[in-house]
Specification:
CATH class of the largest domain: Alpha Beta
Oligomer: single chain
Low-confidence stretches: 1-19, 384-394
CATH topology of the largest domain: Rossmann fold
Mean pLDDT: 89
Structural class: alpha+beta
Strand content: 25-35%
Helix content: 25-40%
Shape: elongated
């Protein structure tokens, strides 16, 4: 009966539409004798189906009911300022409120600040998002769709996740590395591999093993091996004093260790590296400095602002043929919201194969966990869905010998089925410097000589167009 009376009241008090309903309610409370105001508030709260209270698809009212000298709302939407959004106390009641407008599909983290210093979860909002500094309350506007792929499905076969201690001579330390293999894992096959920085958080906060299980079972991506690498000193390793050593460890120790113990492809077109924030920065550096290892880069909310954007500017200036990039960012991420889309446009203009998505979200694991499927299905789309991704090497391999080479080299191409083969040599800037005769070859391994005479010494990439994709292989020509 309370809900019915409240609905009838709001309909009569808000002739201009539902967007005015809370204002009309507040005005009615203020017009009520002080002794009756709290009863009206209690009825309103008992009838509210969601907190924050949505007046329309784009208007949210944050509410707090309780004893306090001051209340505020802080979150992704105001740079986590403790006093930017000071709530208003409604008359003589214990109800505090703040009204704000958002995009209909926005999803943002927030907390309430009580008495200027106590940061608390919203007790009336059951939605929570875990983060690196603990849980936050979640504002999910009516148009936001919760990611179904992060929810375990009892009917879906689960991959195996094992934990290992990886010792690095380069770093002089040991760290945890977790490795996921799909439920269908067969050591006789060769799988693409994706490496996650901040690995433990991608497992616990982003539910990536569950995402992989669901996407693989649904046929939306091919089976992969995933490697979750924990940092020891995150800022030093991903950005500052130990970043060069960390890159060396990844290339010369970790990746060989992975390939020695699990059946994964060793071509860059089948090797992805990804991370968020500083993890997106170090992923970018690995792909830029070692394209012979990492051909797929997933940068989520990347910290490209460091060093006046020097790293991403270098990526744009020196595109690597065959590399593919996935970028992901939120519109509530300050400078990241400007730098990342600008960089994406510059990358595409430079001929780099890159795509990206902007979301009405903040710098949050709630965002990063919800968009793993965008990256994974882009990089690892199975042949049965659309066009097979470049760099897929299932059914095709390429080797070059010798490498480094002088005036000539021998390339061996092995294909599972007959089809056309086209070979093109690119320099370090991505320019095609020599095209070799196209040919139609049968299944199995076949060998061809490459004429390299007249080419300057330096780093090159041989690109092979084969049925179903593209293989990129680094080649060094001696001076």
């Amino acid at each position: 009966m309370k809900q019915l009376l409240l609905l009838l009241f709001l309909m009569g008090a808000a002739p201009t539409g539902a967007a005015q309903s809370f204002n009309a309610f507040a005005e009615s409370v203020l017009a009520t004798p002080a002794t009756e105001q709290q009863a009206r508030v209690d009825s309103f709260l008992s009838a509210a189906s969601t907190i924050p209270y949505f007046e329309s698809d784009t208007v949210a009212v944050f509410l707090w009911a309780g004893a306090a000298s001051s209340m505020a709302v802080t979150g992704d939407f105001n740079s986590w300022s403790a006093n930017a959004w000071s709530m208003t106390r409604l008359g003589s009641t214990t109800l505090w409120y703040w009204t704000a407008t958002f995009e209909a599909d926005a999803r943002l983290d927030y907390k309430l600040v009580r008495n200027g210093s106590s940061w608390i979860l919203d007790p009336r909002n059951p939605l929570r998002v875990s983060g690196g500094f603990g849980p936050n309350s979640e504002l999910a506007m009516p148009g936001y769709v919760q990611p179904p792929e992060i929810v375990p499905d009892p009917a879906v076969p689960r991959g195996a996740l094992t934990s290992h201690t990886f010792a690095s001579t380069v770093m002089g330390s040991s760290r945890r590395v977790q490795v996921y293999v799909p439920a269908s894992y067969d050591a006789a096959l060769s799988y693409p591999v994706v490496v996650y920085h901040d690995g433990g958080e991608y497992v616990s906060l982003a539910s990536v093993p569950t995402v992989l299980d669901n996407l693989i079972a649904s046929g939306n991506m091919e089976p992969v091996v995933a490697v979750f690498v924990d940092p020891i000193d995150r800022e030093q390793e991903y950005w500052t004093t130990r970043s060069a050593a960390f890159v060396e460890m990844m290339v010369t120790e970790l990746m060989p260790w992975i390939r020695a113990n699990w059946s994964v492809a060793d071509q860059p077109g089948s090797t992805a590296v990804t991370g968020a924030s500083l993890g997106g920065l170090i992923s970018t550096r690995l792909c830029f400095e070692h394209p012979e290892v990492f051909g797929l880069c997933g940068s989520f909310s990347p910290s490209w602002w460091v060093d006046d954007q020097a790293l991403i500017n270098a990526v744009v200036a020196q595109p690597v043929p065959g590399q593919r990039w996935y970028l992901d960012w939120g519109t509530y991420e300050g400078s990241i919201s400007r730098i990342t889309p600008d960089a994406l446009g510059a990358m595409q203009a430079a001929g780099i194969e890159a795509t990206g998505n902007a979301w009405n979200e903040g710098h949050s694991w709630g965002s990063w966990r919800a968009h793993q499927d965008e990256m994974l299905t882009y990089f690892f789309q199975p042949a049965a869905v659309g066009t097979e991704r470049p760099g897929v090497l299932r059914g095709a391999t390429l080797t070059i010998h010798p490498n480094p080479a002088a005036d000539s080299a021998t390339v061996t191409v092995s294909m599972a089925r007959s089809g056309p083969l086209a070979l093109t040599l690119h320099d370090a800037l991505g320019r095609a410097v020599r095209t070799f005769p196209a040919r139609f070859i049968g299944p199995g391994a076949q060998t061809f000589d490459l004429d390299l005479s007249g080419l300057a010494g330096g780093s090159y990439f041989l690109v092979a167009e084969v049925p179903g994709g593209r293989i990129t292989h680094p080649l060094t020509i001696l001076p």
